[in-house]
Amino acid sequence: MHFAEVEFVDIVEFAAVVAFAVYGIIRGAERKMDVVGLFAVAFMAAFGGGTVRDLVLNRQPLFWVENSHYTVVVFWLAVFASFFPRLLVKCEKYLVFPDALGLGLWAIAGTVYAQEAGASSFISVLLGVTTGTFGGVLADIICNKVPTIFRKSNIYATCAFVGGYLYLGLRAIDLAENAAMLISITVTVVLRLLAVRYKIILPQREYYEGDEK
Amino acid sequence: MHFAEVEFVDIVEFAAVVAFAVYGIIRGAERKMDVVGLFAVAFMAAFGGGTVRDLVLNRQPLFWVENSHYTVVVFWLAVFASFFPRLLVKCEKYLVFPDALGLGLWAIAGTVYAQEAGASSFISVLLGVTTGTFGGVLADIICNKVPTIFRKSNIYATCAFVGGYLYLGLRAIDLAENAAMLISITVTVVLRLLAVRYKIILPQREYYEGDEK
Amino acid sequence: MHFAEVEFVDIVEFAAVVAFAVYGIIRGAERKMDVVGLFAVAFMAAFGGGTVRDLVLNRQPLFWVENSHYTVVVFWLAVFASFFPRLLVKCEKYLVFPDALGLGLWAIAGTVYAQEAGASSFISVLLGVTTGTFGGVLADIICNKVPTIFRKSNIYATCAFVGGYLYLGLRAIDLAENAAMLISITVTVVLRLLAVRYKIILPQREYYEGDEK
């Protein structure tokens, strides 16, 4: 790869891979996994969402087969992290940061790729949301946690949804691609962090009368 | 899409999408999910089985990317349903109907597509069964239920199996495609409903002597 | 298929399918599944890993669609096994053998196919490991066991990793393909069996001070 060929979306993708790999590693450390387990969780978190997206869009070779250095980076991240298990456990309370960052980066990268492949607006945003959430879902399922997306909790997938449509809107008013990506990624990440901080949930009718839970 | 181009198999597919979306929504409501959760479960239930089928048969674009109005329909179904949470919870006892309907519709549509793609008879029926059961399996796994197909219970996958082979048999004696589909779908759905009503199980040797459970 | 066309890698693949089908059937029997359940678990164990590999490498048709007799063999294995449920339950203590055998056979076959498709060394070995472990992971998830690969336990994925790199090394020094496969499969299987027998685990720093568990 010549440096001149590196596009902004490649940088976003690389950052997203690292963010979700870190998420997977910390989740795995909670379960006291050994280095192979850490790598397996990191790998599925970092590549799960994008793999689904590429298969759906029939993009071959898959992004991590084409950019095989991604897998090497994740491998060494897991090996490196495995030397500092106590540090990892302490990092659990900061888990929301790689999660929010990965969500935003993946969601917009997914939307961009789906648009390039000629998908409709709704499908593009949907694939963005899928790409942005699926890695975390896989890591959570492996580690036996109920995935955030399926819990009644602070808005999560909704942030990616908003970010995806914001990107499409900014592009529709002819903003440059990179600027549109940067803005919509930032909005997604900040929205998610605010949602966690201020416990923003979706308005919802109650399932039972007087249901307080 | 021109109306004249709509084939019977398209109608079957649309009905199947709606049936499994409803199944997913009711399952999600049991877990008190918010509107995003309901949509996520409905989406995976409605499109999971067909996605596996399309990937296996290398049919690109995937059926729900090509017919992107399917995703919009599922989205609005979930939004609409989220306004009536108590009603959804009451619907749980009727869950067997969308489940049986989706099973029959998907199983036969899956068999038809696999035949068109030139798969062998056994593989065609198998893909029909996969398509017909996988959506429910995904919804159940998400909602932390043991999927019906893996439980020792009333015949389920077997109904789809019978329906698939019935379709192939009817086609072999030169019955028109639409008639063969209609008959085999009906048989599958009715068989499943009878299985639930009369607790039809497969004959089975006991795992332990005097095993009553 | 003419007999003359059968390559060594085809024999390895067939043996791997049978080994993992047996693994799936015994795991299913533990959960007292009926014949359909046994088939479903055997099917996912036998074909899960290879399906992921083929989708990643864009090898179409999938290996079990092209060789549709594989599915028929697994079907009759499950039907046959369902007549001897008590025997299956007794076989549980020998589960390590089909598991180790399937791991070795699948891992090397996966590495070979990835090399043929032009993947990098690391990706090839990784896909070998994925192919060798994913079937067992699926069967374990279905049967509600924590998959071996994610547990802190005797080395498992590591054996496949060693075997895959051994294969590449032997090929690099110009050993014939079949000999390289035979040696690296044997090493993988024996290593795994030794790991179980002598409780070989990866060296690991402790998660907590004085952590004994």
Which terms summarize this structure?
mainly alpha, 70% helix, homotrimer, 0% strand, 213 residues
How many distinct beta strands of chain A?
A: 0
**How many helices of chain A in DSSP terms?**
9
Distance between the termini of chain A: 54 Å
Note the beta-strand portion of chain A. under 5%
Provide the low-confidence segments of chain A as ranges. none
Taken together, the total number of domains of chain A comes to: 1
Biggest interface between protein chains, with counts per chain?
Answer: A-B, 27 and 31 residues
Oligomeric nature of the chains: homotrimer
Order of helices and strands of chain A: HHHHHHHHH
Specify the structural class of chain A: mainly alpha
Mean pLDDT score of chain A: 86
Coarse shape of chain A: globular
How many strands, what sense, and barrel or not for the largest sheet of chain A? none
Helix amount of chain A: 55-70%
How big is the Rg of chain A? Answer: 17 Å
Family (chains A, B, C): Belongs to the UPF0126 family.
Membrane topology (chains A, B, C): Multi-pass membrane protein
Transmembrane segments (chains A, B, C): 6-26, 33-50, 70-89, 96-115, 121-143, 155-173, 179-195
GO cellular component, one term (chains A, B, C): plasma membrane
